[in-house]
Structures are given as structure tokens and as C-alpha cells.
Design a protein that fits this description.
Order of helices and strands: HHHHHHHEEHHHHHHH
Largest sheet: 2 strands, antiparallel
Strand content: under 5%
Number of strands: 2
Shape: elongated
Helix content: 55-70%
Number of helices: 14
Structural class: mainly alpha
Length: about 325
């Protein structure tokens, strides 16, 4: 579980332990941090971030040699008084390792604080222009001063409170607009902006289903999937023997092996099944089908109205 989570956090620039979502912003310890870092345009590079960059960018041959040098640098000092860190550093300066002198394909530079501010600003302007051109990044207005408005609309719409989502507290966009005393279109725009802040991509009903919808509705939909499965035939009219290899992993023996194989398959498919059912509901909602028509078309139970309504509410 932690590996996919770590990869997801790394993709948005979080290289250390993430802040607990239950912590209020006012409770976050900001001591030692400078305001430009909090705004996003400048971010400090931690040693963890540096090591992560090396692990992802250097060739394996170089990583192996660097690993050996790190291990030697961690040893106690020698009799001649030279610290192992210094000895290894001097070796590293003379080594010719693949990729070690290459420039990182990231907007990383070392700033010389002894230079004049004008020189630093002019040099960074040129570098910034090059980075944006290479990555095809347009200039955007800084709207961070309005993030609290966007996230307020998100919290009301999605039922976020005390660090978790509460489905019974979700509100429609109209209800959210009424509580915030704002025009409906403004609230829609605020919610869409918050969605991009939280999810990292522009809002669409399909993406909501694949991310937040799958998370929030999985319990309801999983129960429905189980009910649908129970109503479907579990045996074909003509039977045939099923090879052991189909229901158990290679090398497994007895009922335990079969159980592990089937349970593993169910676990890997369950999330995709939830997403596919929600997307099927979304398609029928877009076609203007009523709840009863959707239930009949997908062979759902009457209790499916609850998650059908949730999908319908997000089919903006």
C-alpha cells in the first residue's frame, strides 16, 4: 500500500512524511519556513529530495558505486585521522562515473548569494523563460489568495469535515451556493478549481468517478456488485472440468491455494469493477434515463438509487 502512495506523493512534490489531513492549517508548524516557499514558486530542496532525484536519474552502474561510497563514508575514522567522508569526497571528485556530471532535467540551480540581486533576478528570468518554453508551460495568474474560497466550496460539496469525508453531509451545488450566498456559476467554478488543486487534473464527471467517486461510493457499489453476482447464474448449462491451474497459483496446493488465487483476483478487480459500474451509470444518466430505467438496464436493486443519485449530482 505504501509504495503506490509514496509514488503518488512524489509525483506532486511531496518527498517527506505528508501532513495529516486532519490537522487544521492554523495548527501546522511553519517555523523556519519563508513565505515564498509557502506560496509555491520557490520550494526548499531537502536531502531526501536530493537522494530521490539521484535514485531516479543516475544510471544503475553509478548508483551502485555511489552506494558503496556511502557505505564507506559511514564507517569510523581511520588511524591517520582522516574522516571517511572527506576521503570518499576526494575520491568522488576524481571519479569518472556515467551520468554523474550530467545536468538534472529539473529546474534546479545554485544561487550565488554574493552576486547582486539584479544579476540574480535577470539570470533567473532567463532560466525561467527557458524552463517554461521547454515544458510548454503558460504563465498563469496567481490565485492562491482565493484558495480558501475554492476549498470552502469543495468542503461543502463533498462533505469534508474534521479530516475525512462524510457522505451524509454532502451538498448539491445549489445548496452550496445558497449557503455561501454566491451565484451558482461562481460556486461551480470554485468547486472545479478546488478539484484541480486536490486531484491535480481539471474537473470532469468521469475523473470524479475514477478518483473520489470510487473512494466514497465503493461500499455502496461493492454491495450492489455482490448482489448482482448473486442474481446471475453461477453455473452454465453445459459443464466441463476446470483445470486446477485456472483457480490456483502455480505451486499452490489444496483449498488454501485455490482460495488465495481467487481472493487475489477479486481484490485486484474490485476497484475496476466499481469504476466500471459507476461509469455505466454515468452513461445512462447522460442519456436521460430515469433511476428506474438505470436500475432495470443494469440489473440493480432498488437501493442502488443512493449511488445513482450521487453520480447524477456530479454529472455536471
Amino acid at each position: 500500500m505504501w509504495m503506490p502512495l509514496a509514488a503518488a506523493l512524489l509525483s506532486i512534490g511531496v518527498t517527506g512524511p505528508p501532513v495529516d489531513p486532519t490537522i487544521e492549517f492554523s495548527q501546522i508548524d511553519l517555523s523556519g519556513h519563508k513565505n515564498p516557499w509557502l506560496a509555491g514558486p520557490l520550494q526548499p530542496m531537502s536531502f531526501r529530495g536530493m537522494v530521490t532525484l539521484l535514485l531516479t536519474a543516475l544510471p544503475r552502474e553509478t548508483l551502485a558505486e555511489i552506494g558503496r561510497k556511502f557505505a564507506r563514508a559511514a564507517q569510523p575514522g581511520s588511524d591517520d585521522g582522516m574522516m571517511p567522508q572527506l576521503s570518499v569526497t576526494l575520491e568522488l571528485l576524481a571519479d569518472e562515473l556515467p551520468g554523474l556530471d550530467a545536468l538534472a532535467d529539473e529546474p534546479l540551480v545554485a544561487v550565488n548569494p554574493a552576486a547582486s540581486q539584479t544579476q540574480i533576478v535577470n539570470a533567473l528570468k532567463q532560466e525561467l523563460a527557458d524552463w517554461k518554453r521547454e515544458r510548454q508551460l503558460p504563465d498563469r495568474r496567481d490565485r492562491s489568495d482565493r484558495y480558501h474560497e475554492y476549498l470552502r466550496a469543495w468542503d461543502l460539496r463533498e462533505g469534508w469535515r474534521a479530516g475525512t469525508y462524510h457522505r451524509p453531509e454532502e451538498k448539491t451545488l445549489k445548496e452550496t451556493a445558497k449557503e455561501l450566498a454566491l451565484p451558482l456559476q461562481t460556486v461551480h467554478n470554485h468547486y472545479a478549481s478546488a478539484f484541480q488543486l486536490v486531484i491535480g487534473h481539471p474537473y470532469s464527471p468521469e475523473l470524479w468517478i475514477r478518483t473520489l467517486g470510487c473512494y466514497k461510493l465503493s461500499g455502496l457499489v461493492s454491495d450492489e456488485l455482490a448482489a448482482v453476482s448473486r442474481r446471475r447464474p453461477i453455473q452454465s448449462k453445459t459443464t466441463r472440468d476446470v483445470p486446477e491451474s485456472v483457480v490456483s497459483p502455480s505451486g499452490a496446493d489444496g483449498a488454501r491455494g485455490r482460495s488465495a488465487g481467487l481472493v487475489g483476483l477479486a481484490a485486484s478487480n474490485s476497484k475496476q469493477d466499481v469504476v466500471e459500474l459507476l461509469l455505466d451509470v454515468k452513461t445512462l444518466v447522460d442519456e436521460g434515463k430515469s433511476d428506474d430505467e438505470i436500475i432495470a438496464a443494469l440489473e440493480l436493486s432498488p437501493s442502488a438509487v443512493e449511488f445513482i443519485s450521487a453520480v447524477r449530482a456530479h454529472a455536471l
